[in-house]
Structure formats: C-alpha cells, structure tokens
Amino acid sequence: MGTHPDVVNVGHMIGPGASFKKLPNCSCRKQHDKCQFWKNVEKELNKLGEPKNLYFGLHFNSILEKRTVFNRLIVGGLIFDRIERLRNSIVKNYSKYYEEIKRIKKRNIRYIEAIKKVSNKNIIIDSSKDILRLQYLMEIPFLDIKVVHLVREPQGAVSSSLRRAKKRNKGSKSLVWTTLRWLLYEKKIEKKILNKIKRKNQYTVIYEDLCGNPLLVLDEIADQFGIKKGKFTTDYNPRNQHIYGNAIRIREPEKVKRDMRWEKEFNQLQISTIDFISSRYYNKCKRKEIVLD
Ligand SMILES: [Zn+2]
Predict the structure, then answer these.
(1) CA distance 206 to 184
(2) What is the Å distance from ligand 1's center to 231 Cα?
C-alpha cells in the first residue's frame, strides 16, 4: 500500500520493541539514527515536547511489561466484553494504569502528527497487528481509523503456525488446537474491532485474492476508504521506504505469490478437519468481501 503517492507506510508503527538489544535497521538499510526520515520524525517529536524513547514507546502493552495476572486484569483485553467494560469503568478514574494509557495515547497522536508532517502525506499505514493497541487507538475521537482485515485461508494459516511451532520447538503442534486458536483469534477481532466500527471504515480482504491480483484488491480498498484509485504500483522497493516490522520488510522485492505449501503438507483428513472447524467463519469473511465489491 505504501506505493500510493498519498500514503506513507511505516510498517509496525509501534517500532521494533524493547526486546531488541539495539534497534534493527530501517528498511532503507540505514541504522535508525542514520535514517533521515526517522531523524526528522524525532525532530518533530522534540518540537511537540515528546521525550526521546529509543523504542518508540507507542505500545500499550508496555504497561503490561511485568506480565503479572494483576496487570493483565487491570488493563489487558478480557474475553467477555461486558466484564471488560465494567472493569474499565471501575479502574478508569483512579488507576495509575489509565494515566499511563492516556500518556501513550498522546504519544501516539504526536507520532502520527510527526510522520504526517515529515512525509507530507495524510494517510498512514500502520501494520501493527495488536488488537489491544487498536482498541485504545479507536477510543481517540479525532483519529480517522480505517481497518483492513486480512484473512488468510485457514489451511494456509494453520500450516504456517505449525511450521513456526516446529521450527522454534515452541507452541502447539496439534492441528485441531491450532485451527481452534485461529478461529478464536478471528472471533476476537470480529467482536472487539469489526463489530465496533462502522462498515464504511472497514474492509475484509482474503489473502489469497490479494496475492492473485494485488492491484485490483488494493484499488478496492482505496475505493472503500475514499483514496484515489489507480495509483498503486507493483514496483515496490523497501529501500525507498522507512519500515519497521518483521524480516519481510527488508527482503528484496519479489512477485507476490500465493503460498500453497499446505497442499503438500496436509492429507485429506487434515484438510477436512480444518474445514470442519473453520469454514463457516471463513465463508462469512469471503461473503463480506464480495458484498462490498
Ligand atoms: Zn529509513
């Protein structure tokens, strides 16, 4: 999306996170403190009175740094919406946690302002995928937030999770549990994000359709959100952008293609099992995409 002349893509706006010993390079291949874009953003932030924070300091989860049960109960997302609302109303008025959330909200607003000014563009793509972060940003009334909900074919999503779990030797290797976890996560997005924003401010994209015809799907997103159509290109080069996020951001540009490794990895029974658990939800997402066409 960052190839559009009106759009600036910063990748994961929350930055690389404090777990890094030193900041990884920007996608332009320069070190963070040598990259002119981020240097200019920092200058703008100084003007706005924001203190320097090497790791951006935009992540609402930083409050949960000490991942104690108490901290999670105080500010984390809860499964039941009603209980979460009740919890918020109780804690809001006197908790130091909410002061901290207010401060991080302000910092996010100032970061957005600084990025807009430096890039001279009004539309920022933030690919951070944290639900809690989006929930808090949605509470800021003057941010015009549009959500692109990217859904991957369940077989592809499950196979990728299983591969990652195997590689790291960490996480569940059970196909049924991994599929259920995918479904639960999707349901959480639906309940906590999509059901709370207007239809005109959200667009569901099926990953496989995006890979099949990226320019068409990008134009559909543009159309939905009132961005000029016909301006995206496939001439994407991360070196011309200033992106933080996972390693894909610095990979040399290659043709977008659909990942079909799962067809070889799963047998018929496994494919049907994933289908049995996920097809109702996945078909609903596909219909949503069509309805908005
Ligand atoms: Zn850069």
Answers:
(1) 18
(2) 23
Q: How far is the CA of 37 from the centre of ligand 1 (A)?
A: 6
Which of the residues in the chain have pLDDT under 50?
293
Residue 293: predicted pLDDT:
43
pTM of the model: 0.86
Structural domain spans, the chain = 1-142, 146-231+256-293
Residues 200-231 as b/e (b if ≥16 CB within 10 A, e otherwise) read: eebbbbbbebbbeebeebbbbbbebbebeeee
Nearest to 6 by CA among 222, 174, 263: 222
How far is Cα of residue 215 from the mean position of the Cα atoms in its chain?
20
SS3 label, residue 92: coil
What pLDDT is recorded for position 116?
95
C-alpha dihedral sign at 105, 109, 111, 112: positive
Q: Give distance in angstroms: CA of 83 to centre of ligand 1.
A: 42
Ligand 1 geometric centre to CA of 158 (Å)? 33
List, in order, residues 6 or more apart from 132 with CB less than 8 Å away: 60, 61, 76, 77
Question: Radius of gyration over alpha carbons of the chain, in Å?
Answer: 20
